[in-house]
């Protein structure tokens, strides 16, 4: 399985400012970073 498949696909769809999180969402939340959930996060 390719580990950066979602980021590559997002780039193909035109998204920019993409970042690979080596520790994944678990590492992100352990670092105390914000997480937004829901269908349409507010900006």
Class by helix and strand content? mainly alpha
| Beta-strand fraction estimate | under 5%
Low-confidence runs of at least 5 consecutive residues: none
End-to-end Cα distance: 32 Å
- The overall average pLDDT, rounded, is 83
How many domains, as an integer? Answer: 1
SSE order in H/E notation? HH
Radius of gyration: 12 Å
Number of helices: 2
| Biggest β-sheet strands, sense, barrel | none
Count the E strands. 0
Can you give the helix content as a percent range?
Answer: 25-40%
Shape: globular
Key features of this structure:
43 residues; mainly alpha; 0% strand; globular
Notes on the protein architecture:
- By secondary structure, the protein is mainly alpha-helical.
- The protein has one domain (about 1-30).
- It has 2 helices and no strands.
- It has helices spanning about 5-10, 25-30.
- The N and C termini lie far apart (about 30 Å).
């Amino acid at each position: 399985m390719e580990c950066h498949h979602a980021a590559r696909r997002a780039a193909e769809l035109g998204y920019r400012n993409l970042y690979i999180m080596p520790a994944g969402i678990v590492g992100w939340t352990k670092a105390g970073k914000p997480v937004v959930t829901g269908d349409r996060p507010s900006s």
